[in-house]
Each structure stands twice: as structure tokens, then as C-alpha cells.
Amino acid sequence: MPPKTISFEENLEKLKEIVEDLESGDLPLKESLEKFQDGVGIIKQCDKELETAELKIETIIKKDGKIISEPLRSK
């Protein structure tokens, strides 16, 4: 059975919880490092999803009846 796909919004919520846990200062070092590592993984996954969404939006933008590609943001 394939792993459950976690939505972008669920990932943001998990990331928020991780940040709150880390900011509390109550975690042992080992657990803090594990949570930090989990957070980095979530950030990478969210960034990938945002890039995919950006590409989809760029291909939908129409100008003078033609599909054009305009960057949504400068990189």
C-alpha cells in the first residue's frame, strides 16, 4: 500500500508545530535535532509543491490568445 499523500496545508501545520516545539526550548538536544531535520524535509517538499504550482500557473496565463510564460517572481 503506497504511503498516504500529505497535503501542502497539512505539511504547513506540521511545520508550525515543529517550530513551536523547537522554540519552546524544552526538548532534549537529540529530539530537537530530529525535529529540525523533519522540518527541513517538510520545507523541501513544500518548496517542490510551490514550484510545481508556479509552473502550472505560468502555462495557464494567456495574453492575446496565446499561452505565455511569465515568471511569477524573480529568483
List the helices and strands and how they pair.
Blueprint: H1 8-24, H2 29-60, E1 62-63, E2 66-67
Antiparallel strand pairs: 1-2
Helix pairs in contact: 1-2
3D structure, described in words:
- This protein has one domain.
- It is built from 2 helices and 2 strands, in the order ααββ.
- It has helices at residues 8-24, 29-60; strands at residues 62-63, 66-67.
- Strands 1-2 form a two-stranded antiparallel ribbon.
- A hairpin with a 2-residue loop joins strand 1 and strand 2 (66-67).
- Helix 1 (8-24) packs antiparallel against helix 2 (29-60).
- The longest helix has 32 residues, at 29-60.
Summarize this structure briefly.
By secondary structure, the chain is mostly helical. The chain has helices spanning 8-24, 29-60; strands at residues 62-63, 66-67. It has two helices and two strands; from the N terminus they run ααββ.
Keywords:
mainly alpha; 75 residues; single chain
